[in-house]
Amino acid sequence: MADLVFCALCHKAVTDQDSNQLSLQDVLEQINVETTEKVVGVALLPIPAQFATFWTRSRLEEREKIHARLKLIAPDNAQLANSPFEVDLETKRNYRVVMKLHSLPISGSGRYWFVVESEDADGTWSKRGRFPLDITISAKPGTPDPVPQQ
Description:
Strand 8 and strand 9 form a beta hairpin. By secondary structure, the chain is mainly beta. It contains no helices and nine strands. It is elongated, with a radius of gyration of 18 Å. Helices cover 0% and strands 64% of the residues. The termini are far apart. It has a five-stranded mixed beta sheet, with no helix packed on it. It has one domain: Immunoglobulin-like, CATH 2.60.40.
């Protein structure tokens, strides 16, 4: 089974043309949002971001392709997103997947988890890694309704 070396949410992941090195710019660990509107249910936070994963073969001689997915879990453990992707280690020893995100579904303040899972041979899914994102939503001055906190 392939190893997930790291995963991270950032504003931008850049691959150098000459060296093929990956740079993660502005890793996102916390987002503070001021709003005049009350967050009810799930809202989309317009924020351009990228989620990067780096995988490697657990045994160099073992070639494989695995099915994986990225899930976004809200502070109340509700799943807000599920994006499948493939990790192709058949021709390369290492493999990167960078997903572009245009917005994040949010349901209030609290800790969100980006969870990376892979599909096992028997069809079950195993957690391979996760990355936290703390979101704080506060009311701008003059907002009549309180912003719900989780």
